[in-house]
Amino acid sequence: RPPAADPDANALRISEMGYNRGSPEAPVKVLEISDFGCGYCRRFHQETFPSITEAYIDEGLVEWKFIPFVLGRFPNGFQAAMAAECAGEQGTFFPMQRRLFAEQQAWRGSDTPYRFFSRLAGEEGLDVQRFDSCIAGGWRETRLRANIRLAQQAGARGTPYFLVDGRPVAGGLPLEDFRQVLDLALVQRGREPPGR
Predict the structure, then answer these.
(1) Are 185 and 61 in contact (CB under 8 A)?
(2) Pairing relation of β-strands 28-34 and 161-164?
(3) For residue 172, how far is the Cα from the chain centroid?
(4) Which one of 23, 34, 40, 170 is most buried, counting C-beta atoms within 10 A?
């Protein structure tokens, strides 16, 4: 007799998805859905996110979860997300994330993106053979496809897309605008926003 179907087999377990920064005890939770090929996502991470990290994440006010997503609009976007997930498989997601955004133009135009990502993996100190096996074997593809389903269910039509304590915020807002969103969420949690 076959086993009964698991009704939760296709359930998305957000706690097991993405990559977290900050304290799990932080009063405000942010979920970011981002595509490595997206120029607005790159700009947000290079220009806005460092200040948010310093003022909110490092201070224990915000826990940030990054969900790699593939819009399907950018060359080699799926391959880049797979590279990030395979770096994550070795516990080095964030260094690869930084490199993918920094070198976005180069890999978007590459005819051999996986060779490019393999070089980045080596430069970041990953086990390159294991990284290449992860890519070739599709070890993290199920995880990436779950990310895509989550983003679609959350209503992401473009990137970056955020849920701040469950409230949608679309687009890579300028720093001061994003700080206002986070400050309001903190006040609603009874916490004092950080000083300017």
Answers:
(1) no
(2) antiparallel
(3) 14
(4) 34
CA distances from 7 to 3, 16, 153, 154 (A): 12, 18, 18, 21
What tokens appear for 56 in the block? 């909110």
- Quickly tell me which residue has 């179907």 as its tokens: 5
Nearest partner of 76 among 35, 42, 41, judged by Cα? 35
CB atoms within 10 A of CB 137: 10
